[in-house]
Design a protein that fits this description.
With 271 residues, the chain is mainly alpha-helical. The protein is built from 9 helices and no strands. The longest helix is centred in the C-terminal third of the chain and has 51 residues.
Length: 271
Amino acid sequence: MTERSTDKALSKDAPRRFQALLDLANPTRFLSLSSTILPWMTALTVLLLLTGLYMVWFAPEDYQQGLTVKIMFIHVPFAWLSMMCYTVMTIAALGTLVWRHPLADVSAKAAAPLGAMFTALALVTGSLWGKPMWGTWWVWDARLTSVFILFLMYLGIIALTRAMDDQAKAARAAAVLTLVGFINIPIIKFSVDWWNTLHQPASVLRMEGPAMPPSMLYPLLVMALAMTMLFFTLHLMAMRNEIFSRRIAAMRKIAARNAERENRKPAGEAA
């Protein structure tokens, strides 16, 4: 087969692959696919969590922080998920405003409470870790302040989506707010480089390589992977619940309209 014929074959397959992606946008197809993969995702999440906790249990103590350093193995994944969840919501916001994807606003609405939860856990575990290290529960440095703003952004998006009865308008308004708030994500990431904060610079993703020993790096990576799988598993479950709740709401509206029409019929016509 020549190179030209190969290019033609690939160009013919491209619309089919694109159509396959569009088929997944159908809520019914999504529910069918998610019901198949959810048990596997749940099992993998549990396996990774158990493996990670086992590795954390046998991870060495720090010569300065002692056992307190083990808070890092849950605090860092929580902080990572707080930003990753908002990034997922930003992609969903683009899907709502640009591509009009049917499941985009479902994904964003399902992810917002999870992001708020992981951000709150990051703040709480950070305070527990910071008290013995810094001598205080909280300081208004750049990293902590920007993460707290992220938490408020999550709460604002949740409140906005629940304040409007029209789901389409609520989805568009929340998508705009999400896109505007995404500017805070790089601020959180690079705040330790741009300003003088109590947080140490990045010690895992560095050009020079990780700055921590393998005995601490590997448990941290496994816990980060486990928490990431936990997020996607919970997110998939939340999306399914949102689809079901919308279908129930639509059925109730239809039933209410039918009941109203029956009540408006004259007595002789109804008989």
